[in-house]
Specification:
Layout (H helix, E strand, L loop, with lengths): L1 H15 L17 H6 L12 H16 L3 H11 L4 H13 L3 H12 L18 H9 L45 H12 L4 H12 L19 H9 L2 E5 L4 E5 L3 E3 L2 E10 L5 E10 L6 E6 L4 E2 L1 E12 L3 E12 L1 H6 L5 E7 L3 E6 L1 H10 L2
Antiparallel strand pairs: 1-2, 2-4, 3-4, 4-5, 5-9, 6-7, 6-10, 8-9, 10-11
Helix pairs in contact: 3-4, 4-5, 5-6, 6-7, 8-9, 10-12
């Protein structure tokens, strides 16, 4: 009788998800010593359905620790299960904030905004209302300090992450991407034309400069892109018409998303969330495809040397060829501010995604940024 009961219980656990996984760091490595990683803002919850049962059993305990403000115990309990949802990252954010780690709290709150919803099928949010409670918590945080990026002392030390601050304007024109499949930014094409002109006779070079200055007027000649600071009205109107805008009357939240566009093997779109009583939060969403392996992306740098905060959102395995080689798609959310996008409105943005097993350079055209900021004000 006891054996049958144990077998029955085991089956229920397997079906409902009674596993626990713990946390990982941004590179996907399992973490043993939880608190140092947690306090540094590097704890990642990457367990989904398989941990749902364990999290269900732990919810009452976690809520009690939250209500008693036992922040360290709350962080350890959430980390023990490793379940990823907006609620668990909210708990992480509250624990980090309660322990005085504001930058870590801000990271966890942002991860909560892009994680699985606790009210996805059934409402298992224990009285919380997301994303409202996350956004309210973020708005209560003090503004991040504007610090210059420092050089790491060793290979194992990560440079500090600068959140919600705007880097200095580009000092030089961005170069066109080296990968032939990457979509070059408009400013890259102009810089490349200028370099080619320097090798020609003065008459030809001057004529080339005049052509670059009149690029907007010659847009009707098909193959040339419009000047980034004088975007063709028809093109802008077309891009704006494809931006999705949704309003949630209960959460008092407006969401914005551009139409996805390709840059090499990556699909990218811009998105933003704007609460009624607060400023908009912006993110560059990247779906990066690799035909054979995971790259385990963990950081992003722009062409001006600024490190941007990167969220690991999801990983998908796509079609497999004869069960040997499968496509791998990694979903990333790169946090930026409105000021950052505004400073790149005429130049576009070039980013390098850095992972444990590879890198990728992507481009966000100026026209996409311009159209997006025209709508999100």
């Amino acid at each position: 009788m006891n054996i049958k009961f144990l077998l029955f219980t085991t089956c229920i656990c397997l079906l409902s998800g009674c596993a626990t996984r713990g946390i990982q760091n941004p590179t996907g490595t399992e973490v043993i010593d939880v608190m140092p990683v947690f306090l540094n803002g590097d704890a990642r919850l990457n367990c989904y359905t398989s941990c749902s049962g364990s999290w269900g059993a732990s919810r009452k305990t976690a809520k009690g620790l939250y209500e008693q403000k036992l922040w360290k115990d709350l962080a350890i309990e959430v980390a023990r299960v490793g379940h990823r949802s907006d609620q668990t990252y909210f708990y992480f954010g509250q624990a980090a904030e309660g322990l005085g780690n504001i930058d870590a709290a801000r990271i966890y709150y942002k991860l909560g905004l892009v994680s699985t919803k606790c009210d996805n099928v059934f409402n298992n949010c224990d009285g919380f209302v997301f994303p409202k409670d996350i956004l309210d918590a973020m708005n209560r945080l003090p503004a991040p300090a504007k610090e210059e990026l420092s050089i790491p002392n060793s290979k194992t030390e990560s440079p500090p992450v600068r959140l919600d601050t705007s880097p200095e304007p580009l000092k030089t024109e961005a170069k066109a991407p080296s990968e032939s499949k990457d979509r070059p930014s408009p400013i890259g094409e102009i810089a490349q034309t200028s370099n080619q002109d320097s090798k020609k006779s003065p008459e030809v070079a001057n004529q080339g400069k005049k052509n670059s200055a009149n690029l907007e007027e010659n847009f009707s000649n098909s193959s040339q892109q419009s000047s980034p600071n004088q975007l063709n009205d028809e093109r802008r109107t077309a891009l704006i018409s494809k931006i999705k805008i949704e309003y949630d009357e209960f959460k008092k939240l407006t969401t914005f998303e551009t139409d996805p566009f390709n840059t090499g093997l990556s699909v990218v779109f811009l998105r933003a969330w704007k609460p009624d009583a607060s400023v908009a939060m912006f993110q560059i969403y990247v779906m990066d495809l690799d035909p054979g392996n995971w790259r385990y992306y963990h950081s992003t740098w722009d062409s001006d040397g600024n490190k941007l905060h990167t969220n690991q959102i999801d990983r998908d395995i796509g079609e497999c060829i004869r069960s040997r080689s499968c496509s791998h798609t990694e979903h990333l959310g790169i946090d930026v501010s409105g000021n950052y996008l505004s400073k790149h409105r005429e130049t576009g943005i070039r980013l390098k995604l850095t992972g444990k097993t590879g890198e990728r350079v992507i481009s966000i055209p100026a026209e996409q940024i311009d159209a997006f900021l025209t709508v999100v004000k």
